[in-house]
């Protein structure tokens, strides 16, 4: 009855997106001194979720229910606009640090959504 809930799928997709974006940011920072390296990024979770043509609906748990939504979509990396560094490197450590903080907040938000949803489910079955 309480399996395959959309709120958990969304929280999982948000945490997964944050992890993938953090990996891209870490790679950018690791190549901050590599001549000619251009930084990459992943679009924000909100934009990726909106463009996925995902229909949020009830999940089918019995034959008489409507069909549920499709699974999460992978996110594509894209190249960030280059900066004017003399060696052709486009990485700005300051920008990457700001992105890393934003990603941490996104991951924390996903965990909070998950924990709150679990507390609601526990309350509904009479557990604390």
From TrEMBL:
UniProt keyword annotation of Zinc present: no
Record-stated family: Belongs to the flagella basal body rod proteins family.
Protein name per UniProt: Flagellar basal body rod protein FlgB
Keywords: Bacterial flagellum
InterPro entries reported for this sequence: Flag_bb_rod_N, FlgB
Transmembrane spans: none
Limits of the Flagellar basal body rod protein N-terminal domain: 20-38
Pfam families named in the record: Flg_bb_rod
The keyword DNA-binding is assigned to this record: no
Gene Ontology CC terms, in alphabetical order: bacterial-type flagellum basal body, rod
Subunit text: The basal body constitutes a major portion of the flagellar organelle and consists of a number of rings mounted on a central rod.
Protein's organism: Ruegeria denitrificans
GO BP term, pick one: bacterial-type flagellum-dependent cell motility
Function: Structural component of flagellum, the bacterial motility apparatus. Part of the rod structure of flagellar basal body.
UniProt gene name: flgB
Compartment(s): Bacterial flagellum basal body
């Amino acid at each position: 009855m309480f399996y395959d809930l959309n709120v958990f799928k969304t929280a999982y997709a948000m945490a997964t997106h944050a992890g993938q974006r953090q990996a891209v940011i870490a790679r950018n920072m690791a190549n901050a001194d590599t001549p000619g390296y251009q930084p990459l990024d992943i679009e924000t979770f909100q934009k990726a979720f909106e463009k996925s043509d995902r229909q949020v609906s009830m999940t089918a748990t019995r034959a008489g229910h409507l069909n549920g939504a499709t699974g999460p979509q992978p996110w594509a990396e894209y190249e960030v606009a280059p900066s004017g560094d003399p060696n052709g490197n486009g990485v700005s450590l300051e920008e990457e640090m700001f992105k890393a903080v934003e990603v941490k907040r996104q991951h924390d938000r996903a965990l909070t959504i998950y924990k709150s949803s679990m507390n609601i489910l526990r309350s509904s079955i009479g557990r604390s």
